[in-house]
């Protein structure tokens, strides 16, 4: 199976051996480690690279987005990952040649919209982490673009423009120089981070979709593994397990991941239909 | 004139919204909306609502803004065609494929939901090219953003003026789904952003002030900024809250109706009403401020005072009738009414009527000084003109 992973630092590409890497472009990405344009140019010459410009784009950021897309389009990238449809408008306006990856996060949930956006210029769809395995399978069977399946790691579950940690600390005159924060409720601990663009929150659990990855993968798809909040040594082992999976061992390998991560794993929404209830 | 758009959770609230001055309402149908736990309208109800609205030369928009999953695709076309047949004035969508389907298969006007978090003119252009006639902007847009978007794209802009705020960018929140199994993007938001959490740093040290950590935001209130919003060429001003009470709806719609009309009547001399601001503050169950329109998302917009969040007991009753010959008013009680209370009756067609509650006649035709049975009918001589449908509240 082909893997797509996030890295925390530039030198991680030497330790983490993946088919492709996902990095964020500084000042245009959220909840994916950000790299400068120079670092991205360096990486694009070394590895297969997807670059995320996946933040909600505000009006005053359009010019920067436009300039950045023009620069990125000159690089040899596997794809540009976007959330905001402004990117599709720029593809048309600037005749961009790069592959575009639709990743409207929780909204990439059906094949109809994926196929519609293919006509608007996308080459990949990065699926929502809020859909089931069966839905992923149905999308696979009916989509006309290549797919990226988010099947390992902490899931992003909240993105706000508000500086929620700073606001809280300031309001109650609390001080902290911590880089990482957690919020806890009923024994569950949710990682959260804040930067100049706002606040991001992640699941308390690590999605382990190895079994599903093996069943969904094909030569054109990528299995996305998010390294956020996981030590590199552990992540390298996880990746090795994913890469060593075959039809005879994928069930055992799925359990091996659970054991390696000491019970912090979950199947997320892969077998959990979301509620959609209307009182009649 | 700018449109005043109000929420309507059911037909009663739709009638209240229109009678208190809304030009249009948005409602949820039997499917595909983002308030799955609201009562919502059946197709028959929608037909009735549209007929009622069109007789008043007003409009009805129907939300079709859930994040679409594979399983909904088959029945969607039929649903949209039915809405078209009922002559709803527009549908509100967040998924581009719903927009495209509506434009291909129906004559429906399509508005882009705030769920799509449109914050810039290029995204607005994307939707316009696909056939959308209006964008409900993301709540994070500033005044300057709105002006720039409007200057760059010829499309109607709808902007929120009052009500609860999502702590996240709309559409970018899975908190409810992860913590409770109720998906916000599918209509089941459990408002986890209002929950309390323990905040800890990387050393496991608890960071706690007088209140626990929460994402909770103050509500939005744009009363002061109505002139600026009108001058920014916004087409529609939207009030949030399909699940709010008729009292909340009547109060908020009336306050904004008056502000809009007064501004258009005399732009130079217009001043926003501090009394109306006080009225809005009373009717809300948490503090309200302007927020992103001014570029403000500081700590002042966070809401930690959950102890101050109380259910509203100020709504006393609804006027069922007024006899112009005798001056007798009939009220249906909603909260305890006592003789001696200082009260106000307000309505869309007259100034507020302020008085002290006299002794009144109860359902047994006995003179009494307290009404405390649910929906108890009371009568008394008022002596001021009021109308059926007016509301009575504590005076402030």
Rg of chain A to the nearest angstrom? 19 Å
- Low-pLDDT parts of chain B are none
> What structural category characterises the helix and strand content of chain A?
alpha/beta
- Based on CA atoms alone, the radius of gyration of chain B comes out at 22 Å
User: Of all protein chain pairs, which has the greatest interface, and how many residues does each chain bring to it?
Assistant: A-B, 75 and 81 residues
The helix-strand sequence of chain A is: EHEEHEHEHEHEHEHEEEHEHHE
Averaging pLDDT over every residue of chain A, what do you get?
95
Q: How many H/I helical runs of chain B?
A: 10
Mean pLDDT of chain B: 93
Quaternary state of the chains:
heterodimer
Q: From the helix content, strand content and strand pairing of chain B, which structural class follows?
A: alpha/beta
Major beta sheet summary of chain B:
8 strands, parallel, barrel
Largest sheet of chain A: 8 strands, parallel, barrel
User: What is the helix fraction of residues of chain A, given as a range?
Assistant: 25-40%
Distance between the termini of chain A: 45 Å
Beta content of chain B comes to 15-25%
Question: If helices are DSSP runs of H or I spanning 4 or more residues, what is the number of helices of chain A?
Answer: 10
Structure notes:
The complex is a heterodimer of chains A (280) and B (396). Chain A has 280 residues and is α/β, with parallel strands linked by helices. Helices cover 32% and strands 26% of the residues of chain A. In chain A, helix 6 (133-142) links the parallel strand 7 and strand 8. In chain A, helix 3 packs across helix 4 (86-94). The longest helix of chain A has 12 residues, at 62-73. The N and C termini of chain A lie far apart (45 Å). Chain B is built from ten helices and 22 strands. Chain B has helices at 11-19, 43-55, 73-85, 96-105, 121-129, 143-152, 175-180, 226-231, 246-265, 274-283; strands spanning 3-7, 24-28, 59-64, 90-93, 110-112, 134-136, 156-163, 198-201, 206-207, 219-221, 236-239, 288-289, 315-322, 328-333, 337-338, 342-347, 350-356, 360-361, 367-368, 370-371, 377-381, 391-394. In chain B, strand 1 (3-7), helix 1 (11-19) and strand 2 (24-28) form a beta-alpha-beta unit. Classes of the chains: A alpha/beta (280), B alpha/beta (396). At the A-B interface, helix 4, helix 5, helix 6, strand 8 and helix 7 of A face helix 4, helix 5, helix 6, helix 7 and strand 8 of B. Strand 9 (181-185) of chain A pairs antiparallel with strand 8 (198-201) of chain B, so a sheet runs across the interface.
């Amino acid at each position: 199976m082909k893997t797509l992973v996030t890295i925390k630092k530039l030198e991680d590409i030497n330790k983490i051996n993946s088919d492709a890497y996902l990095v964020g472009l500084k000042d245009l990405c959220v909840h994916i480690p950000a790299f400068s344009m120079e670092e991205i140019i360096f990486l694009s010459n070394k590895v297969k690279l997807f670059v995320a410009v996946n933040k909600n784009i505000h009006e005053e950021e359009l010019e920067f987005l436009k300039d950045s897309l023009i620069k990125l389009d000159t690089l040899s990238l596997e794809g540009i990952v976007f959330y905001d449809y402004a990117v599709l408008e720029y593809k048309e306006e600037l005749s961009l040649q790069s592959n575009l990856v639709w990743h409207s996060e929780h909204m990439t949930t059906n094949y109809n919209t994926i196929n519609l956006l293919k006509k608007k210029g996308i080459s990949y769809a990065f699926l929502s982490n809020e859909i089931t395995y069966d839905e992923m399978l149905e999308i696979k069977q009916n989509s006309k673009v290549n797919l990226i399946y988010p099947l390992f790691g902490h899931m992003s579950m909240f993105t706000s423009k508000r500086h929620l940690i700073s606001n809280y600390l300031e309001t109650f005159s609390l001080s902290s120089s911590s880089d990482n924060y957690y919020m806890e409720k009923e024994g569950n601990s949710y990682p959260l981070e804040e930067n100049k663009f706002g606040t991001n929150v992640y699941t308390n659990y690590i999605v382990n979709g190895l079994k599903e990855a093996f069943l969904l993968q094909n030569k054109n798809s990528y299995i996305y593994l998010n390294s956020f909040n996981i030590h590199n040594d552990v992540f390298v082992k996880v990746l090795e397990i994913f890469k060593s999976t075959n039809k005879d061992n994928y069930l055992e390998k799925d359990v091996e991941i659970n054991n390696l991560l000491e019970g912090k794993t979950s199947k997320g929404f892969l077998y959990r239909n979301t509620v959609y209830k209307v009182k009649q | 004139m700018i449109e005043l758009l109000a929420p309507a959770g059911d037909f009663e609230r739709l009638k209240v919204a229109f009678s208190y001055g809304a030009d249009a309402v948005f409602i949820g149908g039997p499917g595909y909306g983002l308030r799955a736990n609201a009562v919502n309208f059946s197709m028959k109800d929608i037909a009735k609502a549209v007929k009622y609205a069109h007789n008043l030369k007003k409009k009805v928009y129907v939300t079709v803004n859930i994040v679409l999953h594979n399983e909904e695709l088959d029945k969607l076309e039929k649903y949209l065609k039915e809405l078209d047949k009922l002559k709803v004035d527009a549908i509100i969508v967040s998924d581009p494929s719903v927009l495209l389907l509506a434009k291909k298969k129906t004559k429906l006007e399509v508005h882009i939901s705030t769920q799509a978090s449109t914050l810039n003119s290029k995204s607005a252009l994307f939707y316009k090219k696909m056939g959308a006639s209006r964008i409900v902007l993301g709540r994070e847009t500033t005044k300057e953003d709105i002006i720039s978007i409007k200057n760059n794209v010829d499309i109607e802009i709808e902007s929120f003026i009052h009500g609860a705020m999502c702590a996240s960018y709309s559409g970018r929140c899975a908190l409810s789904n992860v913590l409770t199994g109720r998906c916000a993007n599918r209509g089941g938001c459990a408002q986890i952003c209002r929950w309390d959490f323990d905040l800890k740093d990387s050393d496991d040290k608890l960071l706690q002030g007088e209140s626990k950590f929460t994402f909770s935001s103050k509500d939005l209130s744009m009363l002061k900024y109505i002139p600026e919003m009108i001058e920014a060429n916004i087409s529609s001003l939207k009030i949030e809250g399909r699940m709010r009470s008729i009292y909340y709806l009547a109060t908020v719609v009336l306050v904004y109706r008056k502000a809009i009309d007064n501004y258009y009547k005399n732009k130079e001399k217009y001043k926003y009403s501090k009394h109306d601001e006080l009225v809005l503050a009373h009717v809300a169950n948490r503090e309200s401020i302007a927020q992103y329109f001014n570029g403000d998302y500081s700590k002042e917009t966070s809401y930690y005072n959950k102890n101050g969040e109380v259910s509203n007991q100020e709504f006393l009753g609804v006027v069922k009738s007024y006899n112009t010959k005798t001056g007798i008013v009939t009220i249906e009680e909603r909260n305890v009414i006592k003789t001696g209370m200082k009260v106000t009756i307000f309505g869309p067609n007259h100034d507020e009527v302020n008085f002290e509650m006299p002794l009144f006649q109860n359902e047994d035709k006995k003179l009494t000084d307290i009404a405390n049975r649910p929906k108890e009918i009371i009568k008394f001589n008022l002596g001021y003109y009021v109308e059926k449908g007016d509301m009575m509240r504590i005076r402030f």
